[in-house]
Amino acid sequence: MTSGRAAAGAVEVQTSGTPEAQGPALLNILSGEAQPRDAYVAIQYGGRWFWIANTDIRSKYTFGMVMLLFSISETGVRGNAPVVTVPAN
User: Fold this and answer.
1) Residue 32 sits in which domain range?
2) For residue 60, is it within any domain?
3) Three state DSSP letters for the chain
4) Distance between CA 20 and CA 44 in Å, rounded?
5) Residue 74: how many other CB atoms lie within 10 Å
6) What's residue 37's pLDDT?
7) Rounded CA gap, 86 and 89, in Å?
8) Looking at the domain assignment, is residue 40 inside a domain?
9) pLDDT tens digits along 10-26
10) 44: Cβ contacts below 8 Å, ≥ 6 apart
11) What is the pTM of this model?
């Protein structure tokens, strides 16, 4: 942080050396060993479940924005659209 290579993020270290939260996290990911019952989105990875709670509006919004950015940044190979010629006579 002091070298300027990364931003401080949601936690800022004060001169006393203790972190002070700047507000609620933009994205709150929960985890556990059992599959969640009411999750907005969930995935199992490494034997654990990770999810966003269906009641966490801020995290749902942030996740949606990240997914939107991923979708508009896709640079997959796209084929040319077919050309249709219609005679004028």
Assistant:
1) 25-70
2) yes
3) CCCCCCCCCCEEECCCCCEEECCCCCCCCEEECCCCCCEEEEEEECCEEEEEECCCHHHHHHHHHHHHHHHHHCCCCCCCCCCCCCCCC
4) 32
5) 7
6) 93
7) 9
8) yes
9) 555 555 555 555 667 88
10) 35, 50
11) 0.59
